[in-house]
Amino acid sequence: MIFDTHTHLNAEQFEGIEKETVEHAKELGVSEMAVVGFDYPTIEKTKKLSQEYDNIYSIVGWHPTEAGSYNKEVESYLQKELDKAKVVALGEIGLDYHWMEDPKDVQEKIFRRQIAIAREMGLPFSVHNREAMEDTYRILKDEKIQDVGGIMHSFNGDYEWAQRFLDLGMHLSYSGVVTFKKTLDVQEAAQKMPFDRMLVETDAPYLAPVPYRGKQNEPGYTRYVVEKIAELKELSVEDVAIQTTKNAQKLFGMKQ
């Protein structure tokens, strides 16, 4: 029983093989997944998948690389979609200073606005943070997000950063990055952080974990993330699977 809290089964890489991918995930113990839609096409595909599969849920938002296209029409569309059944969070939202499709001030404005929408709708949110750790932290702290709750998606910070985001009330979600040989700081953070605030994910089709690093990722490979965390925390794979799934279900307001 593993919950992949952030995957892109709606990506073109899975076109036509969604059923096989979901079945393979089940074979590896991944029983639930949240598919993230971050623009019009991916949100529509996410919605379709959640309608077709009982074990698929939706996360819906406007990605920071799309911030420049955010307007009243987009906002109305998001609010309508967020109010639908099986939508468990708003996201992925945040800052992306790697691609810099839009200026920092534009990204920040849209980030803050979507946090406000999450608060209004009583939903947690999933944060995309690429090369923008300081500003992401500043904004979340300013917004006093403890009453909303959220996820640092594919968290790749060290233990000090983990503590800072945990102090704000965030959950930390670990992806295949935690399995890489050189990410010792990420592994230390995962080892030391509180178990009840930890989530797991793939971010498939990206960031495939060891032993599939460099290949196309898929939701089923969340199992290898769970195995690595079990090793780091000196726990059983079953214990990590059960606890991280409970954490996800509680955060997403699902029946446990």
Automatic annotation (TrEMBL):
One GO cellular component term: cytosol
Signal peptide limits: none
Listed InterPro entries: DNase_TatD-rel_CS (IPR018228), Metal_Hydrolase (IPR032466), TatD-like (IPR001130), TatD/YcfH-like (IPR015991)
Pfam families associated with the record: TatD_DNase
Keyword Metal-binding set for record: yes
Organism domain of life: Bacteria
Keywords: Hydrolase, Metal-binding
GO molecular function terms noted in the UniProt entry: DNA nuclease activity; hydrolase activity, acting on ester bonds; metal ion binding
Protein's recorded name: TatD family deoxyribonuclease
